[in-house]
Specification:
heterodimer, A: mainly alpha, 12 helices, B: alpha+beta, Alpha-Beta Plaits, 3-stranded mixed β-sheet, globular, transmembrane helix (chain A), transmembrane (chain A), NrfD-like (chain A)
Amino acid sequence: MSQSTHSSGLPDIEDGGKRLYAWLAAIAIGLVIGLYGVVTLFLEGTIATGIDSQAPWGILISTYVFFALLSTGICIGVVALAGVFGLKKYEPLVKRGVLLAIATLAAGLLVIFVSLGHQQGMIHLLLSANPGSPMWWMIVFYTIYMVALLAEFYLLERNGASKLSVSLLALLAPIAAGTTLGAIFGTSIRPYYADVFGPVYLVLTAVLSGVALIAAVVIVESKLAGGTLEDARQELVTETLGKYLGLLLGITIVTVAWKYIMGLTATNNAMAAAHEYMLFGPPSWWVWTFGIVLGLVVPFALVATSRTRSVNGVLAASVLVLVGMFASRLEYVLGGQVVSLTQDPSLQWPFVSYSPTGIEIAVVILGIAVFALLYTAGRLLFDLDEVPDHDVKTPSTPSPAVTGGDDDD
Amino acid sequence: MTEHHSLDDEMRTEVEQLQLDENGDDDVDLNMVIDLQSCTGCGACNIGCAQENNLQEGVAFSSRIVETDGQFPNVSYEYTPTLCNQCEDAPCASGCPTSALYEGEGGITMHDPDQCIGCKYCMINCPYDEIHLHKEDPHPRWDDDEAVIDEGTATPTELKAEVGVDGDAPAYYNPNREVGEHEHPTRFKGVVEKCTFCVHRLNKGELPRCVEECPCDARIFGDRNDPDSKVNEILGRYNPDVLKEEEGTEPKVKYVRDYNGGSYERGKGEPALGD
């Protein structure tokens, strides 16, 4: 155990040596694949994707929803708990959380930008804005949110502490944005999106995925650097984050179960048919395997049992939750579109099928690579283990000291 | 010789007198009524529309719903011509973040391709599948040097040279669509497009192409705000239906005289089951 460590617990990533280079190489490969996808998409148009007039939103939209809600969830579920409500337990995660929120939001915005058919028209979001459109409000809220995140990170980096007003903005803006996302989907012609239930479902699962991401990142970082977690950090992962994840998984499992039961038994034909198609039709294999079993049930079992709620157990649960949520976002986005609206012989009827093309997958990989790149860059440039300044030296703080690590610089 | 006015002539006269304003600042409420008993389902509207608007393969502004019911030999068949309903309360326009879809002249739901960002939210919101996405550049094989059958058919480039088309001419250029500000003579990938009641023809005092093509006079088109219009005459006589009325979109394409050619043996007042 000769690893040099930061005072706050995590080994320094630079010590990872070869592992770090392998990681950077993987990001570079992801970027190359992603750029190939983007260039092909721009040259050929949406013909290179699997979408059509009946299923206009595919995996690029669901990936955007995945990333945007990850960011939303980190800010609501972790950063705000410390920054706004003063929960000291979460303070060691604040700076890392803000950086993760920035990286995920940036990746999401990049993917949805690429998915647009005509980016040149974007100036009209300002010139001829339509405040009656939930889509317009979502863009406004996520822009405010991004500014708040950058401001918060800047304040944390410069002063070692954020301002309550900025933290509050970084809590309210993503709630507004995440629920507006639910309003976008909440159209009566596509009842699968569950109308008023949609925003609540999206915000709940946002927090679930956000907590999973921050837990996974904290653990993976220490593993990449080849070190072991010190006691305080281990307790944070297994006790605080592990149990938090378990609570969220429990609520989500019950919520999703009700969502499915209500959907399957609905008298509304489009609602019932969409649920039957997603749960028992062609997409059912991945909806059940990834979305439900591996994404909810297995991780819940892992963190609910104290024996498996170890560092590795929480890591496995977190990664499974992330994989599961990625599948669930696709399930959610497609579910509203699988029931055909018109019995037109030139269109698909009664169900609409969609499968992503390689080009779309490449853009998804770009999103993941950009997220990884931004986070890694932030990790290498800034000291993320700095605990926010206010009231840090109280006995309940898990880390014994804040600054002045033995090998800083 | 007595002067004979066809339905088309009457409607054309009405259209010529319309005072349309490109910003929708007019007192015109354009409506189309489709007489289902006159419609034979020939599809001339669909073909005319595709020609008029140079539509790409797989895109149809004018289409149809076909429903069959019952078990053979007792089968019903219903054919309903469809097009954009130009909804009074248009969900496509209310959801559009850049106001690229808006209420234009005569209450037509217009689309400005310059303002469109290609987010496809209108397609999610339209209950009728009437918004169409251009997935690629128009006529992508316009400049190809490859023949469908080698040494059997001409390549598109050879064909252009043979008929004397300027090599740099944009593909799918339609000079008819140069009339208004809001239609483009060609089109671009990535944006959506929809039926506009052939606004470029209306601006020239012509009827929408599908109305003109219909050999059975099944499409009646005109201003709902003109009490003497043909549209009002028909709507006053019949109780119109609209598609998916429950969505509250208030379509301006209405259907009259729902065709039901069948009959069934009526009961004779005898006690029924459960009586």
